[in-house]
């Protein structure tokens, strides 16, 4: 019985240490990629009238697949997975590339790149942890970086 209990405890400790190692290794990789490549690039700022903004200062920009012909702007998103699976079994890691495009001329007004790790925790009934460029205080608000409200005088 003692051998069984000892092997059970050892197996649990091994699982915890291996799980944590992979999670922290991927977090270090996310940190490095965010520092090199993450963040926002703005190619053109756009000033819009106040009626285009909601009460929180946001404008409605649909994704490319949801955009109607009358929408002036849309988001074009692409995720590239470096590691993909069930976040409860092991960590996922990916790169999100989002562009804001003006429909009339197809010009990319700005883009953001974010790296994310989700999961890699000790299995349990809780939500998997995550780490991304957001956690590093890298500006990621693409919409507010591109669009400004015209002041009415």
Q: What are the salient characteristics of this protein?
A:
alpha+beta; 153 residues; 27% helix; 5-stranded antiparallel β-sheet; elongated; two-stranded parallel sheet
Task: Kindly describe this structure.
This protein is α+β, with helices and mostly antiparallel strands and 153 residues long. It has two helices and seven strands. The strands form two sheets. Strands 1, 3, 4, 5 and 6 form a five-stranded antiparallel β-sheet that branches. A two-stranded parallel ribbon has the order 2-7. Strand 4 and strand 5 (108-118) form a beta hairpin. The longest helix is centred in the first third of the chain and has 36 residues, at 2-37. Residues 8-19 have low confidence and may be disordered.
- Could you tell me how far the N terminus lies from the C terminus, measured between alpha carbons in angstroms? 82 Å
Number of helices: 2
**How big a fraction of the residues is strand?**
25-35%
Structural class designation: alpha+beta
Please outline the major beta sheet. Answer: 5 strands, antiparallel
Strand/helix succession: HEEEEEEHE
Stretches where pLDDT is under 50 for at least 5 consecutive residues are 8-19
The total beta strand count reads 7
User: What is Rg?
Assistant: 21 Å
């Amino acid at each position: 019985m003692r051998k069984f209990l000892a092997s059970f405890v050892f197996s649990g400790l091994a699982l915890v240490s291996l799980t944590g190692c992979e999670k922290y290794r991927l977090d270090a990789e996310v940190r490095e990629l965010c520092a090199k490549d993450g963040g926002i690039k703005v190619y053109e700022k756009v000033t819009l009238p106040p009626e285009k903004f909601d009460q929180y200062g946001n404008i409605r920009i649909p994704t490319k697949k949801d955009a109607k012909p009358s929408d002036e702007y849309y988001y074009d998103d692409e995720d590239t997975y470096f590691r993909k699976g069930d976040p409860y079994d092991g960590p996922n890691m990916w790169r999100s590339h989002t562009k804001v495009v003006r429909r009339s001329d197809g010009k990319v007004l700005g883009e953001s790149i974010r790296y994310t790790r989700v999961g890699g925790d000790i299995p349990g009934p809780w939500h998997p942890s995550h780490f991304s460029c957001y956690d590093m205080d890298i500006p990621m608000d693409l919409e507010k970086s591109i669009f400004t409200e015209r002041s009415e005088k």
